[in-house]
Amino acid sequence: MSKIIVIGGREFSLGFRLTGIKELVEIKDNESPDSIAKIFRKVIDQPDSGIIITDEKTASKLDENFRRQIESSVKPIVMVMSLERTHDNLNEMIKSSLGVDLNVLN
Description:
Layout: E1 3-8, H1 10-18, E2 23-26, H2 33-45, E3 49-55, H3 56-59, H4 64-71, E4 77-81, H5 87-98, H6 102-105
Parallel strand pairs: 1-2, 1-3, 3-4
């Protein structure tokens, strides 16, 4: 069974913890970009990783090429949550990753 894993700062992770998600990787404010990339690689390489959710603050610390690579990943799906992301952007990510158009289901 695939897991949902949250990678991000304490404040970001808290909301997901309250929803019952148990797989959380907390990133400290002073965590180096290399260390964050290693964390992502480790989580991505887990065979049961299904969806990885992170925040813009954490993702912005990653090398641009690596970030593009993980954001275009199909298995696991990596979602970067940001105030700037609109419903349409999220819908397009899901449509390209899963082949499901959420607008059709509504």
